[in-house]
Amino acid sequence: MGKRAAPAGRRGTQSRRRARGRRGPVRRLALPVLVLMTLALGGGAALAHFNGRTADDAAAPAPEPTPVTEAPTTDAPTPRPTTAKPKPKATTAKPKPKPKPTPKKTTVPQSGAGTFTTAQASGDAVGTGGSLRRYRVQVEDGIELSAHGAAAEIQQILAHPRSWAAHGRGRFQLVSQNADFVIRIATPDTADALCARQGLNTHGELNCETADGVVVNLKRWMLGSPTFAGEAAEYRHLIINHEVGHEIGIRQHMGCPGPGKPAPAMMQQIKGLNGCRSNAFPYDEDGSYITGPIVS
Predict the structure, then answer these.
(1) Where is the composition biased (Low complexity) (predicted)?
(2) Which domain holds residue 214?
(3) Reported pTM
C-alpha cells in the first residue's frame, strides 16, 4: 500500500523547517566573516578586545607598527617632569680697592735748640774744574732730621749732571772739619736769627747766605715751595744750587728770561715766577746755562 501524501498544509510546514535549517549555518558564519572584513579594513583594534585577546594574538596580519625606541625599564618610579630653575652664574667677586694710605703730614717745628750737630762724613771731591771748595753739613739739634742723611743728599745734589760741578764751575768735597764753608739746616726761628746777623730779614720762610756759609730754613727743606711745581726733594736741589751759586761768586739774582721758559737757578723763585717754569738746576739737559736778566 503506497504512502499517503502529506497534506498540503503539513508539507508547507516541513518545507519552511528545512528552509530554516539551511539558513541557520549561514547566520553562524556571518560573524567570522565580519571580523575578517574588519581586520582587512584596519580594524585590528576592535579585534584586540574581542574575547580578551591582544592585537598580537590575532590570526590576521596587523598593520606594521610605527617603530619606537623603548626606554630602559627600571624599578624606580618615573619622576614627574619639573621645571629646572636656572642655576645662578658663578661670579668672581672683585676685590675691593685698598684705600690709599693718607700721606703722613710733615710737621716742622718752629724753633729748636739753637745748637748744631756736624755730620761725621766725608767723600771724594766731585767736579772737573775750578778751585776745590770743602764743605761740612750741620743740622740743628732736637729735630727729626739726620745730619748724616742730609750730608749724603747734599753730596748727591752737588754731583748731579746738571749742577755746578759737572760744568767746570767748581769742585766740591764733603768733610767733617777744616771746611771752607758750612751748610746749616735750622728751624725757622733759628734761621731768622742767623740770617739777621747779616742784616737779612727772612720772615721765617727764606734761606740765606752768611759770612761762613749757607743757612737753609727747615720748612723749605721739608715742604718745598708753594711756587715750585715739583716734590720737596727736587726743591732741595734748587736750595743748594742757588746758595752754593753765591758761594762760587755769583752774587746777583736773575729774573725770568721769558714766558714759558725755565727759571734760572739764581732766580728767587719762591717770590714768584713771572711767567717762567719752575726749575731746580743751573743747566738744562743739553748742558746750556740757564740765565736771565740781572734784577738785584
Answers:
(1) 57-94
(2) 116-251
(3) 0.66
